[in-house]
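# step 3/5: fold
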Amino acid sequence: MNFYELLGVSPESDTAEIKAAYRRLARKYHPDVNPDGARLFKKISAAYDTLSDEKKRKTYDTLNGIFKKSATDSVKQSDNIKQKEKQFKQTKNKDFSKVFGSFFEKSSEIPVDGKDINTDIIISLKEAINGSTRTVNVVHSELCPKCCGRKFINGTKCSVCNGTGEYTKHKKITVKIPSNVKNNTKLRIKGEGCDGKFGGKKGDLYLFIHIEETSNLKFDNLNILYNVPITPYEAVLGCDINIPVLNGHVKLKLPKMTASGQKFRLAGQGLKRAGKIGDMIVTVTIEIPSRLSDDEIKLYEKLKKLSAYDIRENLLNE
């Protein structure tokens, strides 16, 4: 779809017509009014920016092979109209619209494909790995049922759509999100976009999938980055800890004197995609429990008396 079709104007339209078309679309798709129309609004603004500037418009027309109708074309169209008038008088058809009026209607009914709809979906890590179904509420733009997109009926604006040729309605669509979907994946749902005009095909629905991250869980392509807290005695003495994963638990062996911020790799515990599988990167952080018993505090006091090492001794020399 070129810039003229996007704004609903023709290459012969002047600046005033282009400006009026832009304002009408801006009122409909501006993000402040229609949050789902943000992407389309950007395209509309780009089209207006180009076509409202004489130099940019001329360059755009040249690059895209768009030319205004010549005087010869206008003469030919005028001759065709006169021929239709002559046929009308000769046949003395009482139904004016069947012979002459339909000529004007059909001459402008060029097939226009429906617009695509874009929307974002946030899913959990579990849904990303196992797959899920979601009900998406989208705003559809469909042909006006009264004027069928022609905008005018018997020379006056359609009373149903007020001359826009279309109306909007909310539609709930149930979509299937495949298993092992990657973060920022774009899914295409064919034919679930806006209706086309005059025989044009329907647009598509595009879903932009975002996997929800938390303070302890993030993603790096197929790898899962996992922050896991450990206690001071687990860090000093070393131990086996259970790491929760989607299919249960995985045992991670901590060596003695494990440092806070140390990383461990669990091979094959990441996301799967196209025959490849990532890893889980576990970063351990030493944390003090929020509640300690009196005996635990006494042990920390004893440890304080026994410790002869000043951990901040070389702080300024490092």
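# step 4/5: annotate
The longest strand covers residues 132-143.
# step 5/5: archive (pending)
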